[in-house]
Amino acid sequence: MKYTDLGLVNTNDMFMRALRGGYAVPAFNFYNMESLKAVVNAARIAHSPVILAVSESALKYMGADMVMAMVRAMDIKPQEQIALHLDHGRSVEVCARAIECGFSSVMIDASDKSFDENLKMSKQVVEIARAHNVSVEAELGTLGGVEDENTSGVAGYTNPEDATRFVMETGINSLAVAIGSSHGAFKRGREDEDLRFDILADIATRLPNFPLVLHGASNVPQKLVTIINEYGGKISGALGISVAQLRRATKMNVCKINVDSDLRLAFCAAVRKGLAEKPQSFNPRDVLNLAMTAMGQVCLDEIRDIMGSNDKL
Ligand code: G3H
Ligand code: 13P
Ligand code: ZN
After folding, report:
1. Which of 59, 62, 86, 88 to mutate to test the pocket of ligand 1 (most atoms within 8 A of CB)?
2. Which of 134, 219, 233, 254 gives 20 to 30 Å between its CA and that of 27?
């Protein structure tokens, strides 16, 4: 399937505009109808470009046919600037399959491999993607954290010199950098712990006008953490990246900010609270509606307060 038949766009143009405008395009992960609707509706309300991100495991969970059918059902128009993106594709094959299915952007994440192997795999994906006008993101360096299978557990900051060579030789469209963020809800020991803006500045200087990507960028809103803990959850100590630091990154060539955990928190907070407050209800749609609204609110808040991508269509 061609992504243009679904009204989708690749990320090239939206990134160039974001670079020029000093804002970031949000990449929100989705994994079911509710999260997809929440993200698309929020982007529509805010007049924001948006990247619909699907991880390998979310793709397996929903099935590629279901993903494409749901995206089609959203009746997306090209002027809405919506991309469908494979998040953390671990192999050339999975990227190629996503492109065949109709994704408009793919990430090849070979960041756990050697520099040479990462370069080789990223180049192969670029070759395949180019024929379909699909954008390619790759990653250099490794994110910290131990929360999911997309994280190696050991943080290794991106080497700015390597980054320049990697971008030149691979022909990728954007680069995910490791500057101290990590996946999941337990990112920092202290609230004032800084991202490595010195490394980001160095990369941005060596690669002027080149789109950079920040993974593991959830803000972890404390009001959601409080609700989850109040209603039986156990995630005390969850801490994200501050709004101020994320905004600062958007001024330093970071034009895609990845958020998954914040939507998961919103979903779980709404479901826990909803079930507790209406113990007589056993209609799943009651809590799923609450969850959809809560995820949509997080998207809207972050589009406006962090990304700065509202009213940019
Ligand atoms: O970066 C990764 C996302 O948080 C996706 O996680 O593989 O559990 O869907 P997942
Ligand atoms: P968070 O876990 O911080 O939401 O990061 C999501 C991400 O990087 C998806 O690729
Ligand atoms: Zn990620």
Report:
1. 88
2. 233
Q: How far apart are CA 120 and CA 253, in angstroms?
A: 25
* Residue whose C-alpha is closest to residue 302's, from 240, 234, 210: 240
Q: Which residues surround ligand 3, an ion (CB under 5 A)?
A: 215, 258
Count Cβ neighbours within 10 Å for each residue of 209-246 and write b for 16 or more, e otherwise: ebbbbbbbbbbbbeebbebbeebebeeeebbbbbeebb
| C-alpha distances out from residue 4 to 52, 69, 73, 82, 116, Å | 15, 14, 14, 11, 33
Q: What pTM, to 2 d.p., does this model score?
A: 0.96
3-state secondary structure of 37: helix
- Please write the tens of the pLDDT for every residue from 35-89: 999 999 999 999 999 999 999 999 999 999 999 999 999 999 999 999 999 999 9
CA 208 to each of CA 159, 179, 202: distance values in angstroms, whole numbers, following the listed order: 16, 18, 10
Counting ligands in written order, which one lies closest to the CA of residue 62?
1
Q: Which of 148, 195, 215, 246 to mutate to test the pocket of ligand 2 (most atoms within 8 A of CB)?
A: 215
